[in-house]
Structure formats: C-alpha cells, structure tokens
Amino acid sequence: xxxxxxxxxxxxxxxxxxxxxxxxxxxxxxxxxxxxxxxxxxxxxxxxxxxxxxxxxxxxxxxxxxxxxxxxxxxxxxxxxxxxxxxxxxxxxxxxxxxxxxxxxxxxxxxxxxxxxxxxxxxxxxxxxxxxxxxxxxxxxxxxxxxxxxxxxxxxxxxxxxxxxxxxxxxxxxxxxxxxxxxxxxxxxxxxxxxxxxxxxxxxxxxxxxxxxxxxxxxxxxxxxxxxxxxxxxxxxxxxxxxxxxxxxxxxxxxxxxxxxxxxxxxxxxxxxxxxxxxxxxxxxxxxxxxxxxxxxxxxxxxxxxxxxxxxxxxxxxxxxxxxxxxxxxxxxxxxxxxxxxxxxxxxxxxxxxxxxxxxxxxxxxxxxxxxxxxxxxxxxxxxxxxxxxxxxxxxxxxxxxxxxxxxxxxxxxxxxxxxxxxxxxxxxxxxxxxxxxxxxxxxxxxxxxxxxxxxxxxxxxxxxxxxxxxxxxxxxxxxxxxxxxxxxxxxx
Length: 493
Description:
Blueprint: E1 2-9, E2 12-19, H1 21-35, H2 51-82, E3 91-94, H3 98-105, E4 111-118, E5 132-138, H4 142-153, E6 159-161, E7 171-180, E8 183-196, E9 218-224, E10 238-251, H5 258-263, H6 269-303, H7 310-331, H8 342-370, H9 376-389, H10 394-403, H11 405-425, E11 429-435, H12 437-441, H13 464-468, H14 473-477, H15 487-490
Parallel strand pairs: 5-11
Antiparallel strand pairs: 1-2, 2-4, 3-4, 6-10, 7-8, 7-10, 9-10
Helix pairs in contact: 1-2, 4-6, 7-8, 8-11, 9-11, 10-11
C-alpha cells in the first residue's frame, strides 16, 4: 500500500492511498480460501468447489467488503502512523466511474482513494500562574431570605371573598370568551378562571381593566396581543374578551411560621428558610461561577493565538447563525432592529466561532495534560437530568444516546469543560471580593472582558442565545421572567 501526501497547506492535508490490484487479489483469495469449506453450492461437494468458480460467484462481493473495510479502517491507521489528529471525520473520495469500479472489484486495477482533512494544531501549553481573577461573593441577609420566603409563600396564600370593588392584589374568579373580529378563537375561553390582579399573568392591559370590578359584573375588555405572541394567528391582533366576574377575594396576610411551612410540605419555618437560603446561594453561586469562567476564558484567549481548523469554525458558526436567525424570525425582527446589519453580524459571529473553537482546543489540551476525566457516574447523572426534562420519553432518549456516539459526546463535553475550569482554579490567582446583589447582577455589556467579539447586536435579543451557549447563564438569570401558558391552554395569558 502506498500513502502519498498530495497537500500540506496550513492545517489542510490530502493523502492519496493506493492499494495495488495484486495485493487486493491476494486478500480476496485469502477470503475465498476461508469460505471454501463453508459454502454450499449445488453440484459440488463441500470443500470441493473450484476456486475459479468461487471467485466467479463471490469475488465481487468479497472485494466490495474489502474496499469498505479499507476505507473504514485505514484512515485511522494512517493518521496514527503520521502522528496526526483530524479535526473532523476525514472526507474520503474514490472513483465514481462505473467501469473503473468494476475493474477494481475484478482485481484488474489498483484501488485508490484520497483522504482530505484538517489536523488539530499543536498547542504548547503556557504557565497558568499569570492568570488572575476576581471572584465576586454576595453575603445573603436574613431580610433577603425572608423576602424570598414570602414570594414562595404566595402559592400557599389564602383568599377570602369580599364585598366591593377589586383592587390590585385581589383574586378574581371569572368566566371569559375571547374573540378576534367578533369570532371566538381556540383557547380563548375559560370558566372559573382565577387571576390575581397585578400578577402580570395575562396579556398587557387585561388585568388593569378588571380593577374596580365586583362580583356579578359583566365586562367587555379590549386588548392587543403582543407582536411576538407565540400563537402567530393572534400576534399583534386586537381582541375582545367578554368577562363575567363571579367572585372577588382579598388576600390574607402571610406570616413566616411553622404553619406556613407545613402548608408548603415542610416541618418548620427554620427548615423553609434553610431551603430558601440554599436556593439563593445556588443562584448567586451560578452567577459568580459564570463571571469567573468568563475571566478565565478571556485571559486564555489573550494567551493563545494559533490557526484554527476551518471545518470546526464553520460548524460552530453555522450553529450560532442558525440560533440567531431563528430567534430573529420568531420575534419578527430584522438585523436593523438589532442595531446592526447582517454583514456585521456575520463577521462578529464568525469571530465568536473562532474564539470558541480555539478555547475549546486549549481547554481540551489543558484537561488532557492534567488527566481530567469524566466518570461513568457523572455521565449517568447528566443523562438522568436529561431524562427528567422529558417525562414519558425516557426510552427514546436512552435509545438515542446508545445509537448516536455524538449525543454522548455532547453530554460529556460540558462536564469535561467545567472540570477543567475547576482544575485551573487550583492553579491561578483568585481574589474574593464582597459585592452587593446588584453588583453581581450588573450587566457586563460594554466591559473590557467582552472583547467586542461576543456581540454582533449589543443590548439586543439576537445575541442572547449565542452568548448563552458559551456559558452566559448569568445573563439569563438577571432577567425576571413571568410564567406563560400556550395559546391553546389560555390565550388570554
């Protein structure tokens, strides 16, 4: 077998592989000899079938199997012998000429194929001692814990029917029918619906028009669905709701005590506060972690500059771009609405893709040299978390992970990355800094750590998903989101 390098340009490689016809014929004859005593052919006793007849009957199929095996196995062996790692699965090309293929299968012509791939660049690791980060830490006060407990307790708040007009904070029980153009629409009707005025659960303007109503009132409310409303047939449409108020109830006072805790399924108020404090600590800890990680990544980005495989960058860029395009399409906006142009956005997201690929390679090299591994227990826990998100689909998801090697890799990669960050935190200079909640939550837009390459559309939604994919959960956590139902469940909401 001949292995000839035909291209070595930057990270790009092309290898021509030639297996002489006589070598292919030898391999075919070996296979034929192996099956001679196993096949049964009418007119011949077992083991007495002439080799020429076997070749006539099975030669092409055996050669086809040999071709497939060579194409499947040799690229890995060739790369290992060359001491190279391919950035992606090598592309394999062979003749598409039917006559030429027939000659190869008949062992009358050399079998040739080419490998095209990009090598992973060599990375010379540098000392991490010069990396310095500030870890922001928030002290959680009893007052904040109590405030959060009261918010949690809203679900256990009781209401008592009152006479008179409804005010913000009161709960209204009502029947309603929603109409667009005078015609009732699907999902716009409900009976006995409960709504706490001022909760922001229903579309803008709906709750405000119920303030001052009382039991027995019949009202027609006019509202306009938001332009980005999930139900496209309702988005931006003016609608009326015929509302019949059945009851108005005032909220009872909430006291943080053991009785409240028991309503929430806990044994005591102390235990309730303990759980809430833990949740707040976890939330702030996640934000702190993301800011720490960003600082580390920014400094690694400055430390390492090397050519990145175009195939990996293109794959990363396409993923980012699809997210951005889908987000804009769903919101009905354009790049101009996002204070940018498509050309500028593409340029900036290409830079972001290059950064991600480069940092991914650096983190991979650091982790490999440090002996970082992802255990089977860690993988099982991560997969279990995936299963929890899709109840009733557990079997399909497990089958997917078993049948798709790339699916398991997508679970393993973020775990590995976080463990590499943990490893780096044992080597770098970390200074803890006490900050307020507001300082921790402060938006990082415009700060030096952003490097400009993170955002094609500053302050706008178009960049949100792309940033989140690089570990920007903190950005999402800063925005208070109210629960929303599907239009089919309750279109007034």
